[in-house]
Amino acid sequence: MSATKIELNAFPPATEADWRALVEKADRSVDSLATDAEDGFSYGPIYGRRHQASPLARLRAGSWSIMARVDDIDPVRAGSQAVADLEGGAHGLALALAGAPCAHGFGLPLDAIASALAGVRLDIAALRIEPHPRSREALETIIAFAAEGGHDPAALSVDFSLDDTGSFAFSGRFPGSESEHRLRLGRETRALRARGLSGRTAEADGRVYSDAGATAGQELGAVLATALYDLRALEAAGLSIAEAAGAIGFTLAVDQTQFEQTAKLRALRLLWARLLEACGESQPAPARIHAETAWRMLSQSDPHTNMLRATIAVFAAATGGADSIAVLPHTAPLGLADKVARRLARNIQVILQEEAGLCVVSDPAAGSGGIEALTDLTAEAGWNEFRKIESEGGIIASLASGALQNRIFDAASARHRALAEKRTVIIGATIYPLQTERPHAVLATPTPSESDWQGERLCAPLRPRRLDEEAEVAA
């Protein structure tokens, strides 16, 4: 049986008028199909293609880096997991130290870093130290360990953060004075550059805001304000705008709202370029964006559904142009993930990258009328939030006054009302729940600790809260 040849012009093109006629035939208006975003704007449902759109530039073309979290409280087990992740397709490791905002009650002990990295090829594996008040000590530990193994520290790929803004937002405590913090950020960055280390030394981390309930615009505004704070500190230390920008990285949380998350990452690239241009950089380098699947979207009820959420989130991050991605295991809300959950989390990225080929096109959303419009609207919301924060004195002052937290709390409350009124549903939690939960293996249950958080309490802390926790309260 011969295959039927399909003519390219066999189907007549559908115009916007055709679509509108079909909608009206169903006694609906096109406007009724628009989606209301949490940042107060509406988008959709029909957009024409943007033929003049150009792909947004990234630091490098091709695959994003698959990052595996190292957050086990047991250093030997953490080391075994790290090797398994790298052998199983991961390109690098994200070290979450005990007490880090993103550790969620677990985390690698600071004095166990060398043990956890004992079997890791430091000459080929990228490392990332998640923001933590003692990340500088962690970096020196890695440098010393690498030197013992004959590795030139300057050849290492290690990103970490001297910026304590996210830690301040999470704990409510600021270590020392703000002026000392700014001086340290600039001084130590210059010292590390003199030693040949080229990794990021400041991270504008949006997860602490997202975890607490921030909208996409609020998260973008907060990371942009943090990046400007770091930029000013580094410039004051003698770095050029280009050098300072190259020392700053961004981290965003990505959830299952696919189009909105793709637009959020693309919006950050636009915002960073706009900010650098305002600072006098005529040809700004692209933002370096790390994405992690959002803690707040994970459900403790029927946690297998989290694998679907994570897959959509990774798809969104990849099509949004993330430079690296980490996936929280589906059992993370229950406790410390075992090797099976870690493997499943890792393979979500491996499959999407190597089998689905998401890395073949650098910016697949470029020219899509709907995504381009949503990118612009999200960027506008992020810029408006950034301007509010700056009008309040900058990110530290806004947090100290509680202004930013209040806006995030308002957004979280609105989301809570949507759950209570069943305008938002969570599969497995508020709709189609299991009558009896399946057993799930975890290695340990969380034990939140603030042992590393020093300093006077100066602001209301932003603490992570999952949506299914809100649903339990609403029920």
Structural notes for this entry:
This protein has 475 residues and is of the alpha/beta class. 43% of the residues lie in helices and 8% in strands. The protein has helices at 16-25, 75-87, 113-116, 135-148, 165-171, 178-194, 207-211, 216-236, 241-246, 258-278, 305-319, 339-355, 369-391, 395-401, 403-420, 467-474, and strands at residues 35-36, 42-43, 65-70, 92-95, 126-129, 158-159, 202-205, 248-254, 289-293, 324-326. The strands form 2 sheets. It has an 8-stranded parallel β-sheet. Helix 8 (216-236) runs parallel beside helix 10 (258-278), helix 10 (258-278) packs parallel to helix 11 and helix 11 (305-319) packs parallel to helix 12. The longest helix is centred in the C-terminal third of the chain and has 23 residues, at 369-391. The radius of gyration is 23 Å and the shape is globular. The termini are far apart. The mean pLDDT is 91.
